[in-house]
Structure formats: C-alpha cells, structure tokens
Amino acid sequence: MAYGSIGETATVNALRRVVSLWYFIVPIATIGLFAFVPFVHAAVRLRERRVVLLALAYGAVDVGILAGTSILQDGSGRAPWPFAIAAIIVVVAACAQLSGLRRRAYAIAAPQVAPVPAAQPAAVDPHVASALAARERRTQAKQLVESDPLLARDLGIGRPDLARGYDDGGLVDLAGAPAEVIARVCGLTEAEAALVVDNRGRFQNIDELLVIADLPVSQWGLIRDRGVVFPVRV
Q: Which residues cross the membrane (predicted)?
C-alpha cells in the first residue's frame, strides 16, 4: 500500500473515531437511561440479529429503570439506590459492548503502519573485501601445507618468486624463499631477513624462528600471518 493511501486512511479513521464518540457520550450523559439508542443505531447499520436483541434488551432495561424510579421515588427527587446502581451497571456494560460495535458500525479500520523498507546491507569497502579474501586464501594455503606439503610445493605456496600462478593470499616460505622476498612480505629489513635465512635448519615452526633469530617483536604478528614453514617429514 502506498504511503499516501495509508495517510488518507488514517485521516478518515480519525474523523470516524471522533464522530462515533456519541456512542459513549449518550449512555454516560443520561446515566444509562438512553443507553439503548446507540444499539438501535448499530442495529440499523449492521442489520445483525444479535445487535437487534441487544438494542431491545437495553431498551427494556432502560424502561424498567425509568419506571421503577418513577414509582419508588421518595419525594426527594433522588432515585432509590437499587436503581441508581442498576443505572451505573448499564452504563459500564453498554460502553464495553459499544466499543466493538462502534468500530464496526462506522467501519473504523485497524491502525495501519507504513511498511518499513528492508534494511540494505552495508556496502563493504572493496579494499576491506580484498584483504579479507586474501586472509581466507592464506588460511586455506596453510592448511594445504600441513595436509599435503608436496602439492603445496608444486603450487608454489610461499614462493612468489617462482610465479607458479597459485594465489596463496601472500604467503612466504620462511625456510625456502630468498631473503629479499622474506623482507618484502614480512616487513623486515635486509639484515633481519638474512637472519631468517642464516638460521634455516634450526627451526621447525614460526615460533621457534622468532626466538632463535631474535626478530623484532613489532613484526611478529605479520610474520605469523604471512610466513609459513613446511613440515619436516622423517
């Protein structure tokens, strides 16, 4: 439904609610004596047997209260208390039953809420998407190194200098790649990369290399992320 038609419906409903308030005003203002009038109006509009019976019932009760009050009045102008209580009960009961009848008689629709546009997924920065994709490829390549090192070597994982064409996300083989490649990928100086090369054969994993080669702590995170050490098969 268009927003405009929703607004128009809301306006019509608001007017009908105001106009139909007399359904409550009449029973309250007359202390129940004319409570049957709104029921008669609803019966004419809805043409339902149940509503007709309600109109007749309230009419009979109202006549009974009015007649009883006239007969038993004590001369003070005040109605006997049983009929006063009965009138109050009529007011409460009539208002409760008229609440639903009023909406139906005046065709007051239920409140309609404008549909909320579906939230669009936030656009992902292409650079972020590219970095995340590369990280996922590195994770997969490291798993391949552990599970099938021979295939990993054939694919050139960790050896960008061999240009085998397999995208490993930017890994470097710390135990096989040239020092200049290690320096570029891991953010090390030439001297620090040379320490990695000099200590080959003394480490079997990256954590051992970090300690043995005494590499700067500031680069440990990058080395762990980009570096790979092929397992030694005995």
A: 20-44, 51-73, 79-98
Residue 227, token pair as written in the block:
């570096």
Q: Which long-range contacts (CB under 8 A, 24 or more apart) does 112-117 make?
A: 112/1, 112/6, 112/9, 112/10, 114/3, 114/6, 115/1
Place of tokens 């109050």: 88
CB 194 within 8 A of CB 183: no
- The residues, ordered by sequence, that sit 6+ positions from 179 with a Cβ below 8 Å of its Cβ are 190, 193, 194, 196, 197
Residues in a beta bridge with 173: 228
Outline where 49-105 has alpha helix (H).
49-72, 81-105
Give the global pTM: 0.48
Structural tokens at position 65: 């209260």
- Tell me the C-alpha distance between 35 and 61, whole Å: 9
pLDDT tens digits for range 60-89: 988 888 887 776 665 555 556 777 788 889
